[in-house]
Hints:
By secondary structure, the chain is an alpha/beta fold. The protein has three domains: about 5-75, DNA polymerase, domain 1 (Orthogonal Bundle); about 115-290, 3-Layer(aba) Sandwich (Rossmann fold), CATH 3.40.50; about 295-365, Arc Repressor Mutant, subunit A (Orthogonal Bundle), CATH 1.10.10. The chain is about 45% helix and about 15% strand. Helix 1 crosses helix 6 and helix 8 (about 125-140) packs parallel to helix 9.
Amino acid sequence: MLEEELLSVLRLQVTPKIGDIIAKKLIQTIGSATQIFKEKKSSLLKIDGIGESIIQGLLNEKHYKKAEIELNYIKKNTIKYYYFLNADYPQNLKNCIDSPIIFFCDGNTNWNTTKIISIVGTRKITNYGRDFCNQLVKDLTPYNPLIVSGFAYGIDICAHKAAIENGLQTIAVLAHGLDEVYPKTHKKHMRDVMDNGGFITEFWHDENPMRENFLKRNRVVAGISKTTIVIESAEKGGSLVTADIANSYNRDVFALPGRVNDIYSKGCNNLIKNNQAHLLSSAEDIIKMLNWDVQKEKQITQQQLFVQLNPIEQKIYDYLQKKGKQLLDVIAIDCEIPVYQLSSILIQMELNGVVKPLPGKLFEI
């Protein structure tokens, strides 16, 4: 991204009343972040959701100066960043309407995998939760998943440490800037996380861990993953919010059950009871649900049995083979096929044994 465009994206990000949804609408309507600040006021007012107060914020000089400071920090510290229109922006997150227009990264992240899972839960972890988390990550290790969590006390840090101990990549999603550490006692774990993945955040480098930031962080934890796993939670808690967000994104959610009178199993038990999460008893549940147990040899044999595909069917097949399980609407957008037409094609491909429909309007090979 050109420096001028990055500066303009940062200006959008700091402007009050412009969230990620409106920012994306502006960029995609006008053509670029840079052009937004060159556009006539009358043209901007024609865009749905854009009023006088937002335009005044866009023109505010102090926001431009703040963006310049953040840009200099990014350049000076060679901070990686991921912009929602760039090819390297994580696909799972790109499919979420309210995902960050840009987020920042410090470490050695590698998003080139479809096996991304988030592990969340209570900060007041019990021996039951700790032992299960450690065993779960160990049992999933042969499938080489990327483990995402929030670097908080309890389940979060347990998941990060288990990933590192088993040689897996792990990503910590922060609710503050890269110059901050929260909680302070986890500073000792930072180098290990950096060496085995890294830290990501949508917040600027000096942003403090304010309460509202954790809710924003939770949507990234849920959105960046194929599935969210809740290991222990009280009746109310941030991990339940993450599970709720994951469900809103049509992602799989798993919860570890516990005894009915255990405080830190109530949240998980309720998720399962209300059909908001699959019951999780072992790594095998995840492996089967996400079809990680399908061997490459079986896939090759199955491909040889396929009927002859026409060009559009081949396009859909190649897309699903590359992306894995995807929503109907997402397939339609990425393959540039109208939904009504795509539905008919997928039905025919299903009858021919090429694709398989899944709950939540999902399809896979």
